[in-house]
Amino acid sequence: MRRRRPSPAWAVGLAALALLAMLGKAGAETLLRTRLNADIRSTDPGTNRDANTDGVIAHVVEGLVAFRDDTSIGPMLADSWAVSNDGKTYTFRLRQGVKFHNGATMTADDVIWSLKRWLDPATQWRCLSEFSATGIARIEKIEAPDPQTVAITLDQPSALFLPTVARPDCGQTAIIHRDSVGADGKWIAPIGTGPFKLAEWKRGQYVDVVRFDGYASRSEPRNGYTGAKDARVDRVRFNVIPDSSAAKAGLLSGSLDVIMSLSIPDLEELKSRPEVQLSITPALGLTGILFQTKDPLLKDVRIRRAIALSIDTAQIVDAVMMGTARPNNSALPLGSPFYSEAQSHGYAQNIAEAKKLLLEAGYRGQPVKMITNKRYSFVFDSSVLVQAMAQTVGINIELEVMDWAAQLDRYNRGDYQSMAFTYSARLDPSLSFEMLTGPKATQPRKVWDNPEAQDMLRQSMMIDDPAKRQALFDDMHKRFIADVPMIVLFNGAELTALRKGIKGYAGWLYPQPRFWGVTVE
Amino acid sequence: MLSYLARRLAMTIPTLLLVAIAVFALVRLIPGDPVQVMLGDAADPAQAAQLRMQLGLDQPIPVQFMHWIAKLAAGDFGHSITNNLAVLPLILDRFQVSAVIVLVAVAAAACIAVPAGLVAAWKQNSLLDLSVVGGATLLLSIPSFWLGLLLLLLFGLKLKWLPVIGYVPFAENFWQAATFIVLPIATLTMVEIGVLTRMARAASIEVLRLEYVTHARAKGVPEWRVLARHVLPNAFAPTWTLIGLVLGHLLGGIAVIETVFTLPGLGRLLVDSIFARDYPVVQGCLLFTAVIYVVVNLIVDLCYPLFDPRVTVA
User: Fold this and answer.
1) Where are the beta strands (DSSP E) in A449-492?
2) For a FRET experiment, which of A14, A140, A387, B284 has its CA 20 to 30 Å from that of A29?
């Protein structure tokens, strides 16, 4: 038998193939696939938006300042800022060499153009009303003393100015290039400064963002929505998958890498899967039981207090959240820099005291209607447990299950006896109290109508000194617990599941993903 | 024929107008409105009022209705409140997805159910009949979402033959698109087989008892020919009516199956829009569904003479 030597052509072909394979491997795009439970509304930051929109857009655009991990404010496109002595003028020093996605370098001119666009009523910016007479402060002047400096003057000092500018639902007051809109002023697509560029939005199916190679990252480590943002994957695909069990199946079969906002039963199931890792972080939302203090029965604080004393908050949280969240009776979220020792004093279960209060109030088993919903399983579960615990002291709670839109309608009109409700995240302690307190006559949705508290709230919004604000918040908390307009139960947790090969992901207080600094193996 | 068609189409106009009024009123009767859902727990009244004005929801309801009807007459279904997309293209886009699944599934179900029903009727009260009837009843009783989830678990997760989530339009990649809709089609086919088999069997039993069948047998026509020539055409008409009803019903939305298989179909669009109180989309979907129902039934009626020469369209 003759052995044939491989012909040179054959060898060259083989070598070429091997080379191609290597190139192919090196050139293969790294892709991270995640899930949105609904399509985004638009790509225009802070205008036609919802939480999904904010989450995607935060990868594409940035503002002057941004929230840190602990909800304090840090510099983002600004390098630093100074506040004038009267507290009205903020002078921002811009970072040098920041590039837009079209290659242009950011200057004070772009900042002014962007801010003016947000403040133009035609833009329909969500946060425009915050900068009007009824909001936190009016913007009187925006100037650029030099190409790296922008000065904004307000009509009155406000502790909420920077937190509002940084708010993700305001689109972080993004600084965008003027080519983001057409000559007719119509929105085209965001040309931002973020670590990712918007690549494709296939409506109802997915949104793709791709790495921006010209990104100028900050040097300090990743911190909330600021710090270093190095995109380590070429592309992130946000798939629109409304059904959560389908999303879970997608994760297990490997067609998704990350799914956020899991429910507690999902968590229990995914814990045992070897191909999945979990990220559990405390969240800022707030779940609790609201009382209508104008209700003929519940206007008696003794009955409200009796309900609060009949329940064991820790037990409810453990059962509902399976150890992923801690009990909290304060309006401020656990993890807030203002969550002092005073904030941790809440209600302790006391059956005898509760029974005594009910006797004093002359309660004789009248039904208390409690609205709840199944859109949020933790809200429904909480209401069931509160009902059962209140039963032990003789309080007769009747649950009424509604769809979320119908419940919101009743909430906004204040048309309820009691309801189990969940608030979305507020990033500043003043805003946490603001969502609860206000005059019911003009704001029927507000649950806590206490004029002194409202006065303290106004002060907390004006002063910048953290120690003075802390004293106000602690005082408000004491009154909040004494008045029992609602029982705060817990702040919840953000539960995210990732496939094992995903490295570098970290959740934070704000329930939005950050895909910079994340790698796929 | 043409005048019949014209008359039938003219008759649909009052029907659709009634549907339009009912839909418009009903959607607004549900508590909650789109602005509240969009703003959530952070609905500041000034913001809400501004948004209502932008969306035209601050106008009196009769004025809103007249606006909608006037635009509708010009073929403009309006724009979605949630994402500002034009409603008609949105509906048509979603309808394609549902229509492919429904048409293929019902056709497949009919191809299986009609012969099965015929054979079961022919061998009435035999073991074969019993198993056909038993199988049909079983399929009829299984909830479609549960069947869908089981198929998803088996073929998607355990065997990994088919993708679990997502959707690719046929225009983009035919084979890939097929892999995504095989399971929904299989689920729907199985459910519909149950419905149609029972109808086909019942109709065939009726026909098998008639004298002309006995006559055909008596004159020595082979049994397969009796079934094919005499029983099938006569027994098919009631089944055809049912197919029409089923088609009209399913084309209006297979929300449950679309949700299980995460398909961007018409049914899910409708359900999502109801939860979001997206009035223009809900109205558009329901009106579109009514049109589909009318059109499908018209086509079914026009096809009758093909199966039954006694029926004339005039």
Assistant:
1) 486-490
2) A14
Query: Does the pLDDT value for residue A27 go beyond 70?
Result: no
What is the spatial distance between Cα B202 and Cα B189, in angstroms, rounded to a whole number?
A: 20
> With a cut of 50, which residues of chain B have pLDDT below it?
none
- Average model confidence (pLDDT) across chain B: 85
Tokens 């009767």 belong to B29
Residue of B262, B268, B281, B282 to mutate for A, most A C-beta atoms under 10 A: B262
Q: What are phi and psi of B26, to 5 degrees?
A: -60, -45
Cβ A149 vs Cβ A93: under 8 Å: yes
Query: CA A300 to CA A292: how far, in whole Å?
Result: 10
Closest C-alpha to A285, from A55, A495, A494: A494
> How would you label B127-147 residue by residue, b for 16+ Cβ within 10 Å and e otherwise?
eebeebbebbeebbeeebeeb
What type of residue is B104?
Answer: V
Q: Which of B31, B82, B260 sits opposite A243 (nearest CB)?
A: B260
Q: How large is the ipTM? A: 0.73
- Contact indicator for A167, A52 with CB cutoff of 8 Å: no
Largest interatomic CA distance in chain B: 86
- The closest of A505, A70, A515 to A279, measured between CA atoms, is A505
As beta bridge partners, residue A93 has: A80, A149
Burial of residue A357 (number of CB atoms within 10 Å: 0-12, 13-18, 19+): buried
Does the distance separating the beta carbons of B45 and A443 come in below 8 Å? yes
CA distance B190 to A226: 53
What are B200's two structure tokens?
Answer: 């086909």
| Pairing state between β A31-36 and A235-240 | parallel
**Residue (of A314, A356, A511) closest to A423 by Cα position:** A511
> Is A68's pLDDT higher than 60?
yes
Contacts of B160 in chain A (CB under 8 A): 253
Query: Which residues touch B170 (CB under 8 Å, ≥6 apart)?
Result: B100, B177, B178
**Shortest CA distance to B301 belongs to which of B105, B7, B99?**
B7
Determine the residue of chain B that is closest to A48 in CA distance: B83
CA gap A259, A513 in Å, rounded: 10
Pick the residue of A409, A421, A431 with the most B CBs within 10 A to test the interface with B by mutation: A409
* Residue from B53, B206, B30, B200 nearest B117 by CA: B200
Give the Cα separation of A137 and A130 in Å (integer). 7
Residue A379: pLDDT band (50, 70, 90) is very high
The token duo for A305 is 């207090």
- Domain boundary assignment for chain B: 1-74, 91-307
Position A199, amino acid: A
Domain B91-307 indexed as CATH 3.40.50.450: no
Q: Does this model's pTM top 0.90?
A: no
Judge whether A256 is closer than 8 Å to chain B, CB to CB.
Answer: yes
Residues B19, B22, B25, B28, CA torsion sign = negative
Q: What is the pLDDT of residue B179?
A: 84
In angstroms and rounded to an integer, the radius of gyration of the C-alpha atoms of chain B is: 24
Cα separation, B217 vs A262, in Å, equals: 66
- The CA-based angle B131-B243-B274, given to 5 degrees, is 110
Are B165 and A256 inside 8 Å of each other by CB?
yes
A250 touches chain B (CB under 8 A): yes
| Size of chain A in residues | 521
